[in-house]
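Chain A, query sequence.
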Amino acid sequence: MKMKCTACHATAESAAQAGFPGLGKCQTCHPEMSSLPARSARVYRVKDFVFFNHQRHSEAKVVCATCHGEVYTMDTLKLERPVTMVACVACHKEQKATIACNVCHELGQ
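Chain A, predicted structure.
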């Protein structure tokens, strides 16, 4: 249906966390669901010492598909782009974004 990501992940453009929809939200389009499937495990996770902010990336006009791929074409969500420092720094360099350490890491820990 090519819906906007925010149709399910309401805070993807307005908060640091994109959020995960609850069962009621899923049932809006999938009324046959009686529970969230066991496969609804988190696919993208950054290390505890890394801060990723969806809102800042959205403000910088980075589209969701840059990291997540064309989700609406996938039967099962898969890791499209690795969540590693090498991958993130490479993307920042491609986009001419800052690579200052304190943008993604809290210094002095």
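DSSP finds five helices and no strands in the chain. The mean pLDDT is 88.
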